[in-house]
Amino acid sequence: MSEQPPRTTGFWHTVPGILTGIATAVSAIAALLTILFQIGVIGGTDSTPPEATVATTRSTTPSTVSSPNLVPVAGSGWTTATAIMTTNDGTEYRSRAETFRYCFSGGAGVYFNNAQNIAFESMVSLEVVRSDVALSSGGRADVRITLTSGTLLTGTIDAGCDFIMQAEAGRVNLYPDKVKKIEFQRP
After folding, report:
1. DSSP string of 153-178?
2. Could you report the per-residue pLDDT of 20-67, keeping only the tens digit for each?
3. Are residues 59 and 34 part of one domain?
4. Which terminal residue of the chain, N or C, has fewer Cβ atoms less than 10 Å from its own Cβ?
């Protein structure tokens, strides 16, 4: 009689293999959901979270905002504007404003109060009042945003995303806990 070689079982036929496969699938789904949440594809349905407050300041340019997606003032010089990011220790970084980004997804604005995307193009400044440590679980940063209309918004953004700019000496990535203020200067 001829001897048959021993049968080998595949990866999926062992308990460690099954557990590894399940863990990989769960990790991939969690990563996808995190990215979709950060870019605003999924999220809460509350249009005004309880921590949101809106205060209006005087403006030399009267304007009314009728849409949650703020539209910048036409001719505001955005393509020639400069973004100036000042750190907590007073260091300033400069870049072209239209290339300034927030979060890994490359957003050209911030996801404000888990409800509203506000474009940098619609801002005069963003001041970080207080921030949880970068990447802390559920971390938030309290911010004051001055819009081109003169409206002042106070609320929160995700402290786990960083501001990204291409300064003269190279790329700069800073989380809200390291940032004091961002200004958008138009000619």
Report:
1. EEEEEETTS-EEEEETTEEEEE-GGG
2. 778 777 777 766 666 665 565 665 544 444 444 444 333 333 333 333
3. no
4. N
Average pLDDT, the chain: 78
83 and 119 in a single domain? The answer is: yes
State the Cα–Cα distance between residues 144 and 177, nearest whole angstrom. Answer: 14
89 and 180 belong to one structural domain: yes
Quote the domain boundaries for residue 27: 10-43
Closest CA to 164 of 152, 176, 148: 176
Q: Domain check: are 39 and 95 in the same one? A: no
* Contact between 112 and 145 (Cβ < 8 Å): yes
Residues 21 and 108 in one domain: no
In 10 A of CB 108, how many CB atoms?
14
- Provide the whole-model pTM: 0.60
Q: Is 75 left (phi over 0), alpha (psi -120 to 50) or beta?
A: left
Which residues are CB-neighbours of 89 under 8 A, at least 6 positions away?
Answer: none
